[in-house]
Write a structure and sequence with these properties.
mainly alpha, three-stranded antiparallel β-sheet, Arc Repressor Mutant, subunit A
């Protein structure tokens, strides 16, 4: 019996994204943090030190495909929650509470991800990673071109 693979298209990518995001959000909600906040917090958590606030907001814009005001709001929310703190006139740093939250949610999601990806050969995961990176790169180029094209 031959099993036919489903088509690899935007719908398949979207379904996988939303399914895995729902799993992540089920972890995040228990910790009182939103998906958007977790994205921004991770960017600071993996940095080697304080991060320029404007650069962080731009990275959030790029990661979430959102506007700058929304990204600034996410950063402001993390500061208000005590998960990030100003570190001089522009940089922000992760606080002990932010580090603890990031470490806890990362540990929980790592266990779940291991179950989700269990049994998928590493070479197939590597190919999938390369394909998704290429799709993302091309979609980002299309978005940038569309944004640069004046309305007709």
């Amino acid at each position: 019996m031959t099993i036919t693979a489903p088509p690899f298209d935007s719908r398949a990518i979207g379904l996988a994204h939303y399914a895995t995001r729902a799993v992540l959000e089920s972890v995040l909600v228990r910790h009182g943090v939103s998906f958007q906040q977790s994205v921004a917090l991770r960017l600071v958590a993996v940095a080697e030190g304080p991060v320029d606030r404007a650069r962080l907001a731009e990275d959030v814009v790029g990661a979430l495909k959102t506007g700058r005001p929304e990204a600034d709001g996410v950063v402001d929310g993390l500061i208000a929650a005590g998960l990030l703190a100003p570190d001089g006139p522009s940089p922000v740093r992760i606080t002990d509470a932010g580090r603890k939250l990031h470490d806890a949610t990362s540990a929980e999601t790592k266990v779940i991800a291991a179950r989700i990806y269990a049994g998928i050969p590493s070479d197939e995961l590597a190919v999938t990673g390369r394909v998704l990176a290429l799709v993302t790169e091309r979609a980002d180029r299309e978005s940038a071109a569309a944004a640069a094209t004046p309305d007709q």
